[in-house]
Write a structure and sequence with these properties.
331 residues, alpha/beta, Rossmann fold, Dihydrodipicolinate Reductase, domain 2, 2 domains, six-stranded parallel β-sheet, 8 helices
């Protein structure tokens, strides 16, 4: 058991969920410490019905910490993680800073749990859009190697933080009243609109978000031969990312086989009855930890192709829950 644990970024949106999930899942520990920036240090939060004073995120706080879950921006992770590792603390990092470093395992517990044993003090949790996709890919890939993936994402505004949520709510309200809104998180209006860019221009016309899905998928499966063609789109949905996924496998997988594989896999729930209008949507996947799949069908254009629809709560399984699950593997 990790006797003394901590949450860095405890007051942020994902940090608050980490606190909630630790409590819900009965995570074992002896002491817990909540860490944040100067802005929040000294304030009091409730955890398991008890008040806790938030401590400043600084080097000395890690002197007696065994395990820390970090839910911070990349630049903060770059600074604080070395402080923790130098003092023998294991870090589960949710930021993007360490994901593609060769010495840092990138882990989704349903997909590559054994990778945690390779850590040198740091374990990274992937990008939210990658996480749900690889969970859905795993049982298919185990049955017949996936050669190629074509994925289009429909990503919620919660993925852009509090400012993204405000842009959706206030931008929509102002649009309905024919008033202007000064968008903070998005370069274009998100109200009544979709934005086919998430992140910066990165590689041959692909964005940074899209290239994360390419590189992280290959790293998690340990296979650079898996080809991934992503298009990442921001949509006017509050929470939960949706993905249209087409996989091409070495050998054909029938729809019936795919359903059986999905149903037997940990962390996946099948919702698939087109005639009755049963399929995953943000409205029925919100605040849940599983990855939901539906609309499972053969690809009409490719002999060994399979298409499906995938929805997951990007703040839970896409971030907080995955980090807690990694921590559970460690203890």
């Amino acid at each position: 058991m990790a006797k003394n644990i901590a949450i860095a970024g405890a007051t942020g949106a994902v940090g608050r969920l980490v606190r909630q999930i630790l409590e819900q899942r009965g995570f074992p520990y002896e002491t817990i410490t909540f860490l944040a920036s100067q802005r929040s240090a000294g304030k009091t939060i409730q955890f398991k019905g008890e008040p806790h004073t938030i401590q400043l995120l600084e080097p000395s706080v890690f002197d007696n910490i065994d395990l820390v879950i970090g839910s911070t921006p990349d630049d903060v992770a770059e600074t604080f993680v070395p402080w923790a590792v130098e003092r023998g603390t294991i870090v589960v990092d949710e930021s993007g800073y360490h994901r593609m470093l060769d010495h840092v395992p990138l882990v989704v517990p349903e997909v590559n749990p054994g990778a945690v044993n390779e850590h040198q003090g740091i374990i990274a949790s992937p990008n939210c859009s990658t996480t749900q996709m690889v969970v859905a890919m795993k049982p298919l890939h185990d049955f017949s190697k996936i050669k190629r993936v074509v994925v289009s994402t429909y990503q919620s505004t919660s993925g852009a933080g509090v400012a993204g949520q405000a842009d959706l709510v206030e931008g929509t309200r102002n649009a309905l009243e024919d008033k202007p809104w000064d968008y903070q998180a998005f370069a274009h209006p998100i109200a009544f609109n979709v934005i086919p860019q998430i992140g910066s221009a990165k590689h041959q016309g692909y964005t940074s978000e899209e290239m994360k899905m390419v590189w992280e998928t290959q790293k998690i499966f340990g296979d650079d031969s898996i080809q991934v063609c992503p298009t990442c789109v921001r949509v006017p949905v509050s929470n939960c990312h949706s993905e249209s996924i087409l996989v091409e496998t070495e050998n054909p997988i029938s729809v019936e086989q795919a359903i059986q594989l999905f149903e037997a896999a940990p962390g996946i729930q099948v919702m698939d009855n087109l005639e009755q209008g049963v399929y995953p949507m943000p409205s029925n996947s919100d605040d849940r930890d599983d990855v939901f799949v539906g609309r499972i069908r053969k690809d009409l254009s490719c002999e060994n192709g399979l298409a499906f629809w995938c929805v997951s709560d990007n703040l839970r399984k896409g971030a907080a829950t995955n980090a807690v699950q990694i921590a559970e593997l460690l203890v």
